Amino acid sequence: MVGLPPTTRQRLRVLVAMSGGVDSAVAAHLLRAAGHEVAGATMKLFCYGDREGPPRPCCDLEAIRAARSSARRLGIPHTVVDVEEAFGRHVIGDFIDEYAGARTPNPCVRCNTDVKFGPLLDKAHRMGFDAIATGHYVRCEPIRGDEPDWGLFRAVDREKDQSYVLWGLDRRRLDRCLFPLGGVRKPVVRRLARRLGIPSWDRPESQDICFVPPGGHGAFLSERLPADHPMRRPGPIRHVDGERLGRHDGLLGFTIGQRKGTGTATGERLYVVRIDPSSATLWLGPRAATRCAGLVTEGGNLLAPPPLLEEDGVIARIRYRHAGAPCRVRILREGCWEVRFAQPQPAVAEGQSVVFYRQDRVIGGARIGKTVPASPEPSHDLQTARMDRSI
């Protein structure tokens, strides 16, 4: 029973979210090998029309066929669940709205929170299943003395750990979520899948945003926002010291901390410091100019008792690949927390997720609502604008 929490020693009826990739197929196998009654469910996220859809390993039409083939190989029933309406509203709609407001969303967080786990748990309950399972690399373990008494933890395989995108899960329902791969390393998963004859054993990793075509999210957003939208207006590119560096064709597709693709060539490495749709200006500067002393969250969700968030020893991750930074957190009101980093952090993007940990345990997460600059910017106009956005 590699990777399964202790309580799964009893026989359960488990509905496994099968994406068509190797991880979810092996998760289903581990559960079945442990003696559980297993069925697979693949979510249809959007309508492909007459096309095959975006070339993504996680949710195109080929992924649905791969999931069905893997389920057949494992000898378990399989069904397709249509969540297109919820995906369009919670994920694609939010993605467009956030970029339209010069923010940087994380669609995987919204998808896991509002499309995959909640609806799948509801469907599993209606169908008489005891729990759901996924191929995410994360651990769910019992916590003595807590109520509810389950916590979310980083995976053993830190390179594959996906706890960052799961901070929005409902703490009260963690006891109905199984993550068989939380204690397994990816090379072991691929070897096992190959030995089992699972067709997706060598299927490539899912890296890009599933609903964005190869042209990139800038082109995707341009097709969905009116031509006169502020984020589509061309405008100046300026250095934080006020020097004009060039001109851009529209602010869509830029994000805080971005270095490549800014369309400038100077003697220093420059990063996106601020995106200002009101003046259609893209501000660039050295990496130090992107540093923030802290932030204020919005829409926060706790996966542990509130006192654990405000105690010493909390680490904040501000990006998926961010190593984490020591910080102090103060709860202002429900879902709204003030965060101060022990050391200023570069490239903190409003709209992105910040996730809090105590050692391996996920304490909670939230969206970054406002950032607090580490120091005033050299440009008076930029300094004033950023002071207006700080707390």
List the helices and strands and how they pair.
Elements: E1 13-17, H1 22-33, E2 37-44, H2 61-74, E3 78-82, H3 84-100, H4 107-126, E4 131-133, E5 138-142, E6 150-154, E7 177-178, H5 186-196, H6 217-222, E8 235-239, E9 244-248, E10 271-276, E11 281-285, E12 292-302, H7 307-310, E13 314-317, E14 325-333, E15 336-345, E16 353-358, E17 361-373, H8 380-389
Parallel strand pairs: 1-2, 1-4, 2-3, 4-7, 8-11
Antiparallel strand pairs: 5-6, 8-9, 10-11, 12-15, 12-17, 13-14, 13-16, 14-15, 16-17
Helix pairs in contact: 1-5, 3-4
The major β-sheet equals: 6 strands, antiparallel, barrel
| CATH topology description of the domain at 12-196 | Rossmann fold
CATH architecture of the domain at 12-196: 3-Layer(aba) Sandwich
Q: Strand sequence of the main sheet, in spatial order?
A: 12-15-14-13-16-17
Strand content: 25-35%
Q: Helicity range of the residues?
A: 10-25%
Kindly state the mean pLDDT as a whole number? 88
CATH H-level homologous superfamily name of the domain at 12-196: HUPs
From the spread of the alpha carbons, the general shape counts as globular
The low-pLDDT segments are 49-55, 378-391
Q: How many H/I helical runs?
A: 8
Radius of gyration: 22 Å
Query: Any idea of the CATH class of the domain at 12-196?
Result: Alpha Beta
Number of strands: 17
Structural class estimated from helices and strands: alpha/beta
Element pattern in H and E:
EHEHEHHEEEEHHEEEEEHEEEEEH
Give the N-to-C terminal Cα separation: 49 Å
